[in-house]
Amino acid sequence: MFCPLDYEQTAKVFRGVLGLFLVIILGVYIAEGQLNGLTQRQECAYAFNVNCDSEGRYAIYLLGASYRVNAVYLVGEFINNKEEIIIKTSYSNINIPKYIEFDCKKELVLLEIWANLLMEECSKYKQSLD
After folding, report:
1. What is the 8-class DSSP label of residue 20?
2. Which of 4, 8, 15, 106 is spaced 20 to 30 Å from 120 by Cα?
């Protein structure tokens, strides 16, 4: 059964864990320095190091182990030309036109006819009121 610790005991545990972590870092640093001195591989020893290249890849060095992480993943591509915007993904292309043309001459003629009929009805109604 777990019994909660009081503040003093919790502080002792955290100090012990912090001390252990510092001893591990110091040991890795000393071992790395000795290994570098024997192999002439590097001029300094690292316990923790992070590098990033221009392509978005991170190299993380932590306590003697090296890890690589990609920060940029190619999901799609935008292409902007004169006629349209193209969104390219790995499976499909989406084309979005920049200019949409439609012929509305017929609708404008119908609207003008409707406006003329409305004006005629209004003038007839005005004459009937007089």
Report:
1. H
2. 106
